[in-house]
Amino acid sequence: LETALQLEHALFVDPGVFPDSENPKNRNNEYDAFDDRYVTFLLTEIIPQVAERYAIAQSPERWGICGGSSGGNCAFTAAWLRPDKFRRVIGYLSSFAQMPDGNPYPDLISRVPRKPLRIFMQGGHRDLHWNEPQWNWLAENLRVAAALAEAGYDFRLVLGDGGHSPNHGGVLLPDALRWLWRPNDD
Question: Looking at the predicted structure, is the pLDDT value of residue 176 above 90?
């Protein structure tokens, strides 16, 4: 028998903007930070408003978070800090390399008890600075994946030849969703 994946609801949130500012985008401040501000914003401001209109599953096994580029490491950070709410993560071309104080995850993953997360990562062989010793997005994603493997996490890494583009991740999305929500005993 085949099990069908049924996603009942998805919530999409754009990053904040400052319309009257020289630099109106707040994306990097929100998404690249290694703190709980963004996930707290989701859990205390956005999701309660949605829950007023729609029934939302309460089990963290049914909650996932997804993002690409800076949104990828934001999704990872949200689940890392709040696995009591988010247990499924998709990170496409995550920008771990540009986190303000550096990528904390390779060291952190190895030092703390394993969290109940299932993680789907996509990386591009020709992602930003792919052939440079610093700010190398591919290398930082590989470091996170290696730490997850060494710590025994349930994760999947899919690499492509492309650059910093949503094309590969978009093609992978149906498979990523099926893989993330497969039965736990699989």
Answer: yes
Q: Provide the 3-class DSSP secondary structure of residue 159.
A: strand
Question: Taking a C-beta distance cutoff of 8 angstroms, is the pair 98, 70 a contact?
Answer: yes
Between CA 96 and CA 34 the distance in angstroms is 10
22 pLDDT exceeds 90? no
| CA dihedral for 33, 12, 82, 165, sign (positive or negative) | negative
| Whole-number pLDDT of residue 2 | 43
**CA atoms of 20 and 24, how far apart (whole Å):** 7
In sequence order, what DSSP letters do the residues of 87-156 get, joined into one string? -EEEEES--GGG-TT---HHHHHHHSPPPS-EEEEEEETT-TTTTSSSS-HHHHHHHHHHHHHHTT-EEE
Q: How far is CA 56 from CA 10, 21, 40, 97, 146, in A?
A: 10, 36, 17, 34, 34
Tell me if the pTM is above 0.90.
yes
